[in-house]
Amino acid sequence: xxxxxxxxxxxxxxxxxxxVDEALRRVALEPYARLAEGVCLDTGRxxxxxxxxxxxxxxxxxxxxxxxxxxxxxxxxxxxxxRCDARQGALLLGAFAQGEYWERARLFCLxxxxxxxxxxxxxGEAVIVSAGAADAPVALEALGTARYLGLSxxxxxxxxxxxxxxxxxxxxxxxxxxxxxxxAGMEGALPSVxxxxxxxxxxxxxxxxxxxxxxxxxxxxxxxxxxxxAGLCVVNIDNGFGAASLAAKLLSSRAEAR
Length: 258
Known about the structure:
With 258 residues, the chain is an alpha/beta fold. It has helices at 3-15, 20-29, 45-49, 62-74, 86-95, 136-148, 171-176, 190-197, 218-225, 240-257; strands spanning 33-34, 40-41, 55-56, 79-82, 100-102, 107-110, 126-130, 153-156, 179-184, 202-206, 232-234. It is built from 10 helices and 11 strands. Strands 8-7-9-10-11 form a 5-stranded parallel β-sheet, with helices on both faces. A 4-stranded mixed β-sheet has the order 3-4-6-5, with helices on both faces.
C-alpha cells in the first residue's frame, strides 16, 4: 500500500462508499505480503517511511527474485532491485518487459523511469560525484536510486584528487545543488575536499576500489570517517543505494520543514 492507496481508502470511508470494517480489513492485511517462495514484502513501508521496500538481488534465487518483484507490482507499487547481475537482469526483463535494467549500476526498475541514457547532466538538486571511472558502478547505483526516489540528480564523473583541477568546471553545478553524494575509493580523499569547498551537506561513499592496503575499501572508509571537513557523513563501503536513500530523506525533511 502506498499513500495514494491509503488516501483512497480513507476517502471512500469518509464519503460512505466503504464500510469501516472493510477498510480496516484492507489496511490490516496490506502492511506485508508473505509469499510462498520465502519472501515477505513490507508493502506498508512507503506509508511509514516515505520510501517503498527495495529488493536486494544478490543471493536471491530466481523464484525469490521474480516473486519479490511480482509481489510489489501486484500490490500496485514500483519495484527497484539493487545488486542485480546481468543474468538476473535478463531474467527480470523476460518476465517484466516494461521494466528497465542498467547493467553498470546493477539496477532493475519497474514502474518508474530511471532515464538511463548518457550523457548525464551535472545539474540537479542532488549531484553524485565520482572520484574515478572505476568508482562509477557505485556512483551510478546512487544516481539511479536517487532518480527512482524522485530526486533531480546530476552526475559528475572522474574528478578525483589525482587531478583535482578536473572538478573546477563543475563548481557552479555543485554550488547550486542542495546536497552532494561523493563516491571514492583508493585513499578516499575527495569527499573531504568537496565538503571543504562547497557549503552543501556531503554524503560520502567509500568504494572497494584500490590496491592491497586499501583493504577492500576500509582505508577509504576510515579516511572519510576521520575527515576534518564539517557537514560530511559516511555510509557503508560500496553502498550507493544507501547514500541516495539518505539524500532523499534529508532533502524531503528540509522541504517539509519550510
